[in-house]
Design a protein that fits this description.
Layout lengths: L2 H12 L4 H8 L3 H9 L7 H8 L6 H16 L1 H19 L22 E5 L1 H18 L5 E5 L5 H10 L5 E8 L7 H11 L1 H4 L4 E8 L14 E5 L2 E5 L5 E5 L2 H17 L1 E7 L2 H6 L10 E4 L10 H7 L7 H22 L3 E6 H10 L16 H16 L3 E6 L10 E5 L5 E6 L5 E6 L2 H14 L5 E2 L1 H22 L6
Parallel strand pairs: 2-3, 3-4, 9-10, 10-11
Antiparallel strand pairs: 1-7, 2-5, 4-8, 5-6, 6-7, 8-14, 9-12, 11-15, 12-13, 13-14
């Protein structure tokens, strides 16, 4: 028996109906129901599970557990938990991860007992207090941009927390991590977990750079190894064990030189995992890149770039934008490329956006994903209609697939988006308080494929409106807005 069949059988035994009565009430063949409960057959779909569950008088939490077991049965535990990891990553990305408050128990001390430049610490608290001191002192004493080097997996939350408490935009943090490259079914899932753990550093204000290499991940999180992790800060080498119970702080120039040189060799041989940049033009160059994979984006408001014209760009783009004409040319060329690509490849753009994002764009004309450095004025009412009607036209012609997401699904805001580009890369865009946008590009194919798989499965999620229903939903919203601006005398939409 599967976890699903065992749980369903348990709920059925608690119920007041016999299996025959339950089968009749659910309009299911009694033999089929028996096979579902014994684990010999799977329910056809989620709706069948919900129909059966509705007759069993189970709680909302019990239904949630039953559906979870059904999805595990349907796709396998590895794929199921891989998709859950992606979903949780997306939620954390949109929600943002704030720097945790510094523990008041930590105290910055002026001196530390050392013998011949070596300080040994036992116990996690003592280690973290000393480590916090090292980070804080390096940043406080540095004339130039301080640099902190991490050779460790991202599982050490307290180390990351200490760093986030003291680092600033001038702090350079370089980290090398190991990703699995085995052919085990859960390799991608495990790599997604590692990638998720890197998110707090990736979203920090620091100059964070992270590279990776492939190896057996378990060899880097093994309690049988002594001092498998090290940190270099202000020429001090910090080595600590898997359980953070033992650490050595070595302040020796010769030792620093050896470890530092070793790290630089590893750094050169590793590949970039998250490439961060804030150059809007660099982002635009690959905005609609050519390739053989589909283009998918998840964002708060609808992607209307498909309908942009030179007139719209010229009207909205700020007049003193650097190389303004070059930018408009590049932008329009990109749009032509993607239009040609979706036609030639017969692969539509797939756009996930929220109900409130559509309403907000129609009401305000604001597209939050474009940084303030590009334009700071809303799209005029008539142009909003034109852009959305271009989207509807593209949907009718198979060039654009819209998926309208429930507002509470990810906690999305206007300043962030995630896109899978046609060239096989993934770009995450995030707004910052200054109004600028930061872009994070990921090309590791296992991680990108996990997001691709998630979005492909998400297309049929019950929390998403798709296909003709999505078209009708968007059409109705546009028509309602056209009536609104007509009666308000604010436009001539027709």
């Amino acid at each position: 028996m599967s976890g699903f069949s065992e749980l369903l059988s348990e709920y059925a035994r608690r119920g007041v109906y016999t299996k025959r009565q339950l089968a009749d009430m659910c309009d299911i063949d009694r033999t089929l129901l028996q096979k579902i409960m014994s684990g010999e057959r799977k329910p056809k779909n989620e709706e069948v599970v919900i129909k059966i569950a509705s007759k069993l008088a189970i709680s909302a939490e019990e239904l949630k557990s039953l559906l979870e077991e059904y999805h595990i049965l349907d796709v396998g535990s590895d794929i199921y938990y891989q998709r859950k990891e992606v979903e949780n990553f997306i939620k954390d990305f949109y929600r943002g991860i704030k720097n945790p408050p510094r523990s008041e128990s930590f105290s910055v001390t002026a001196t530390d007992n050392q013998v011949d430049g070596i300080s040994c610490k036992k116990g996690k608290f003592n280690i973290m207090n000393r480590m916090y001191n090292a980070f804080a002192k390096a940043i406080a004493d540095s004339i130039d941009n301080p640099e902190i080097i991490l050779y460790m997996q991202p599982q050490y939350d307290d180390v990351i927390s200490a760093l986030l408490n003291v680092c600033n935009k001038n702090t350079i943090i370089r980290q090398v991590v190991c990703l699995g490259n085995g052919n085990e079914r859960n390799t991608i899932r495990n790599n997604m977990e590692i990638f998720h753990k890197l998110l707090p550093m990736a979203l920090s204000d620091s100059d964070y750079q992270v590279r990776f290499f492939y190896e057996n991940v378990n060899s880097h999180r093994n309690a049988m190894q002594i001092f498998s992790n090290y940190i270099i800060v202000n020429k001090t080498v910090i080595m600590f064990d898997y359980e953070e119970e033992n650490a050595v702080f070595i302040d020796n120039q010769d030792f620093y030189n050896i470890v530092s040189e070793s790290f630089e060799n590893i750094w050169k041989k590793s590949e970039m995992l998250i490439r961060r940049h804030g150059d809007i033009m660099e982002y635009i160059k690959g905005f609609f890149s050519e390739g053989k994979k589909y283009y998918t984006t998840l964002e708060y408001d609808p992607c209307v770039t498909f309908g942009f014209t030179r007139e719209i760009c010229d009207l909205l783009l700020i007049k003193d934008f650097p190389n303004r004409d070059v930018y408009i040319d590049s932008f329009m060329d990109s749009i032509v490329k993607i239009k040609n690509w979706v036609v030639d490849e017969k692969r539509p753009m797939k756009v996930f956006f929220t109900r409130s994002g559509l309403k907000n764009f129609m009401e305000t004309g604001i597209l939050g994903k474009y940084p303030m450095e590009m334009w700071d004025k809303p799209v005029p009412p008539d142009m909003r209609v034109d852009l959305m009607e271009a989207v509807l036209y593209a949907m009718k012609n198979g060039a654009y697939e819209a998926f309208v997401v429930n507002d509470d699904m990810f906690g999305m805001t206007p300043k962030e988006l995630i896109e899978i580009r046609a060239d096989g890369s993934m770009v995450m865009t995030r707004g910052v308080e200054s109004g600028d946008m930061h872009f994070m590009e990921v090309r590791e194919q296992g991680i990108v494929s996990a997001f691709e798989d998630f979005f492909q499965n998400f297309e049929t999620d019950s929390r998403v409106i798709a296909g003709e229903l999505a078209y009708n939903y968007i059409y109705d919203e546009v028509e309602q807005y056209k009536l609104k601006i007509f009666f308000a005398g604010g436009g001539t939409a027709s």
